[in-house]
Amino acid sequence: MKKIKTAIIGASGYTGLELLKILINHPVFEISYIGNSEGGMSLCELHPSLIGVFDMNVSKADAKDVAKTAELAFLALPHKTAMGFAKELLTLGVKVVDLSADYRLELDTYEKHYCKHEDKEHLKDAVYGLPEFFREDIKRADLVANPGCYPTASLLGLLPFCDIIDERYPIFIDAKSGVSGAGKKCTSKTHFVSIDENCFAYNPLKHRHEPEIKEKMKMVCGVEFDVNFVPHLLPLIRGEMCDCYMLLKDEIDPLKYLREFYKDEKFIRIIDRPVDLKSVAGTNFCDIFVKRVGKKLYINSAIDNILKGSSSGAVVNANIMCGLDEDLGIPKIAYVP
To answer: Which single residue of 87, 211, 216, 276 has CA 20 to 30 Å from 104?
Structure first.
């Protein structure tokens, strides 16, 4: 099979490293360009864990240089920075999977919660990269906006029940994530002495992923639900769990309902007991458990926040964009024990 030349821009962080680990062994995507904000170093200097495995030069990221060497680019960059690269790459004919928030939201929502958007032209053509719901659109896309990690875990649990959630009542999401989701730069909250043997909420009811969840539920269901989202930081490296609470219009068998809904999905596992983080760590799986009491529904989902919630999810999207089997090169074996 013909190789597809592939670039990673923003290779310094955790998501960039996870992309590298997947693409090094991918049978079709061939890494032809690695860039970050500085350049002038080798990949093994940047990530010593890759010594003896894979090495190449890391360049100071330049869209024109990427276009000369790659057909596909992954952007593992902060919001606002990503849109500048995406705009130029798309103009130069390079397909883009963007892991930032820059193309995930409608214009008004984005500018309210992030910053002024500088690429409205491509924003309207971006496809939200949740394959379980937007697969056919992803197949035709040149620009895929990879979902946030919390929206991935939340939406995969919530969206199947859209038609039977009672919209008169609020939905509550109690979410928890490992520290890798906060990125590589240390802060007072992610410092070892703050997070070790500790757990706390942050940005309750005003986290940027709340409007993303709300907007995509409306896109799929046609209903504007009252979504209330509270994330917590756990003293773990990776893993994410979302507990969703709501009322239903009808009393159904939720496990049977979910198994039927997701019967053809390779990366959704419906579990008959509460989920755990170890079983999904290192994989692209989303595990989901549900329980109903009367019309009260509890949804319990788990993913690896920097894989299914970011990097492996991005490679799945790229596989689909390029007409490949979507599970090609995707990690499936959990880091257990």
So the answer is: 276
